[in-house]
Design a protein that fits this description.
Largest sheet: none
Distance between the termini: 58 Å
Number of strands: 0
Radius of gyration: 16 Å
Structural class: mainly alpha
Number of domains: 1
Number of helices: 4
Strand content: under 5%
Low-confidence stretches: none
Helix content: over 70%
């Protein structure tokens, strides 16, 4: 079995990538695409082992179902923060 990152590392990476995506999207909208690609790649790399029909159940049994839920939540947070940066700017007035 592979070693799984801690929940603090998962949430920290998600928050960091999400805020980076938010800031980059505010600065230059098209540059959010590489951040989203990085998020998808890291999620696939990490959650792919948990979704594997042979390796997944023993890992989930070891770390708990809550770990899987929090890992998916962290990925969702990163994506939502990045996409929030694409929201149109408010006009003054």
């Amino acid at each position: 079995m592979s070693q799984q990152p801690t929940l603090l590392a998962l949430w920290g990476a998600a928050l960091g990538l999400g805020l980076a995506g938010y800031w980059i999207a505010k600065f230059r909208r098209v540059l959010v695409v590489p951040v989203l690609i990085a998020i998808v790649y890291l999620a696939w790399k990490h959650l792919g082992a948990l979704a594997d029909p042979v390796l997944g159940p023993p890992i989930i049994q070891k770390v708990g179902y809550g770990y899987l839920v929090q890992a998916c939540g962290a990925v969702a947070l990163a994506v939502v923060l990045s996409l929030m940066g694409l929201a149109p700017k408010r006009s003054a007035g």
